[in-house]
Amino acid sequence: MAKPPLSMKPTGWFQVAWSDEIGIGDVHEMKYFDQEMVAWRAESGRLTVMNAYCEHLGAHLGYGGKVVGEVLQCPFHGWQWNHLGRNVCIPYQDRPNRGRRISTYPVVERNDSVYVWHDAERREPFFDAPDVFAGFDDGSSAADYHPQQRLYRQRLELHPQYVLENGVDFAHFKYVHDTPIVPVFTRHEFNGPVSFVDFTITFEGDDGKKIEDVNSGVRAINGGLGVAVTKSWGMVDNRTISAITPVDESTSDVRFMVYIGRTPSKDRGRAELKAREFAREVIRQFEQDIHIWAHQRYSDPPALATAEYAGFTAIRKWAKQFYPDGIGGSAAEAYAAAQKG
Ligand code: FES
Ligand SMILES: [Fe+2]
Predict the structure, then answer these.
(1) Which cofactor(s) does the record list (predicted)?
(2) pLDDT on residue 326
(3) What is the Å distance from ligand 2's center to 171 Cα?
């Protein structure tokens, strides 16, 4: 097993479900960040994500908990909890327990996904989850794209940072994805918690292809370590969302979503089919990465080629802001050791 030396409790927005998995009145149980959680949708449509255990005697609300109007009712003794995790009713007493509260998570629904804000210190969100359309400021919306195609792989031994490092890793494209050329990065901006990476790439042509002749590329926005969105240009119009969420100390769930742009077409059925085919191809390429990540051992410090140095140094330095101790990996251990002795 290759347990990452990086914290599996990073700060940021992380996907825990798709919106359509949790209908009105549904209670969805799940485990992330080593916590049992429930997501439930009230009659009004409001979605709440909170820790799973009832503060009364500890029943798991995901096993028999029931949505009653705007509250979640425990299956054990009928206590009711609201969207703030507050107890609002004890059915056999005239007043609720105002002191106890179930921990809730800030939640947003965006691009058909449910994102929760995780922070070990319970600070409020300090950046926004990226939007695969609005984030690129080009007036696009889901209506311009075919329905989202998805990949969902559970409990893989990988860390969210591996996936982001892919974005500065120019050399892997040729070997993992069989691109004819090595992409060229035109933007690496790792300042705030949201970072930006642009690169020129093509999947067409052979070894004789020159980078100067390539008129296509990808723009990526990384909203922390958990959610990244991309937009392509100069090739089949596609957008992607990759979302990696730690489950426990060694595994993460991976969700990947692809949108293919609609084009004017007389034959709608055929256009739909072609879009699905292309989406499958994009997903296949992402699976090629997963195959590497799921068996990788985090290398720190890594042996880098000269041209790799700037990108990897920048992204690893940027990533540290999301770890509870502010330092990831061997640096964290070195720090702890220095404190001790
Ligand atoms: S354990 Fe939830 S009401 Fe008793
Ligand atoms: Fe890749």
Answers:
(1) Fe cation
(2) 66
(3) 10
Homologous superfamily of 12-110 in CATH?
Rieske [2Fe-2S] iron-sulphur domain (2.102.10.10)
Contact 258, 283 (CB under 8 A): yes
Q: Which atom of ligand 1 is nearest to the CA of 78?
A: 3
Please name which of 41, 38, 37 lies closest in space to residue 22, comparing C-alpha atoms: 41
Query: Which residues hold their Cβ within 5 A of ligand 2, which is an ion?
Result: 166, 289
Between the CA of 208 and the centroid of ligand 1 the distance, in Å, is 68
Q: Which ligand lies nearest the alpha carbon of 73?
A: 1
Q: Using alpha carbons only, what angle is made at residue 102 by residues 97 and 107, rounded to the nearest 5 degrees? A: 135
Domain 130-322 has CATH 3.30.565.10: no
**In this predicted structure, what is the pLDDT of residue 340?**
56
Ligand 1 atom 1, closest CA = 57
- Distance (angstroms) between ligand 2 centre and the Cα of 135 equals 21
Q: Which amino acid residue places its CA nearest to atom 3 of ligand 1?
A: 77
Q: Where are the domains of the chain?
A: 12-110, 130-322
Residues of the chain with pLDDT under 70: 1-4, 326-341
Ligand 1 close to Cβ of residue 56 (< 6 A): yes
Please name which of 131, 147, 139 lies closest in space to residue 262, comparing C-alpha atoms. Answer: 147
Pocket test for ligand 1, best of 57, 81, 88 (most atoms within 8 A of CB): 57
Measure the CA–CA gap between 255 and 286, rounded to whole angstroms. 10
* Predicted pLDDT of residue 18: 98
- Is the overall model pTM greater than 0.90, yes or no? yes
Find, among 127, 108, 128, 117, the residue nearest to 47 by Cα. 108
Say yes or no: do domains 12-110 and 130-322 share a fold. Answer: no
Least distant ligand from the CA of 74 = 1
Tokens of residue 110, six digits: 């965006």
Tokens of 40: 């439930």
